[in-house]
């Protein structure tokens, strides 16, 4: 997925859970947290392609009626993000994560996956596109984190962690899955950090 026009929505991780981690990452030395409020959380989910755009206004309206529930959902998302960032960053050089970091991430992922009671269904968007949706059996906001949790679970099962990198550009904290054969990817995005680093090296030469 390429970068979203909103610079705070950067889809460079190659996996949903890594893009979620990158919702709180410094770039060029400036920190930007996408999850400043429930509305931005919904906007990110829509941009990430895991929440149908037509459902976002309905959930936003419900959040206005249930502010405590919306706030709790946002706190929940930040809590899971912190555990997933630790998983993405720790032990990167050795390709292994400390057991306590992995256990903490497993606990968070399992906690969210435990909410998976509900109905999975196919729906048709306004443009005729068919998409998958999940209708939770309980609280309205409970399912929002499920796609992220499932993405992280897939990475743990597939053994992808050894290929996770942090951008090599100074001041950038974005993480990504290195899918190159020789594991040589260094930048979160060539158009951004990669080009800036090349220009910096050129000026030094």
CATH topology: Jann2411-like fold
What structural class do the secondary elements suggest? alpha+beta
Order of helices and strands: HEEHHHHEEHEEH
State the share of residues found in helices, binned by percent.
40-55%
The first-to-last residue Cα distance is: 33 Å
Named CATH architecture: Orthogonal Bundle
Global outline: globular
Spell out the CATH superfamily. Jann2411-like domain
Q: How many strand units?
A: 6
Mean pLDDT: 83
Low-pLDDT parts are 1-5, 91-95
**Major sheet description:** 2 strands, antiparallel
Roughly what fraction of the amino acids lie in strands? Answer: 5-15%
Q: What is the rounded Rg? A: 18 Å
DSSP helical segment count: 7
Write out the strand line-up for the largest beta sheet, numbering strands in chain order: 1-2
Structure keywords:
7 helices; Jann2411-like fold; two-stranded antiparallel sheet; 205 residues
Provide a concise account of the structure shown:
This protein is an alpha+beta fold and 205 residues long.
Notes on the protein architecture:
- The chain is α+β, with helices and mostly antiparallel strands and 205 residues long.
- It has helices spanning 16-21, 38-47, 55-65, 67-89, 99-113, 146-158, 190-204, and strands spanning 24-27, 30-33, 118-124, 130-136, 164-166, 175-177.
- The model is unreliable at 1-5 and 91-95 (pLDDT under 50).
- Helix 4 runs antiparallel to helix 5 and helix 5 (99-113) packs across helix 6.
- The strands form three sheets. Strands 1-2 form a two-stranded antiparallel ribbon.
- Helix content is 45%, strand content 14%.
- It has one domain: Jann2411-like domain (Jann2411-like fold, Orthogonal Bundle), CATH 1.10.3300.10.
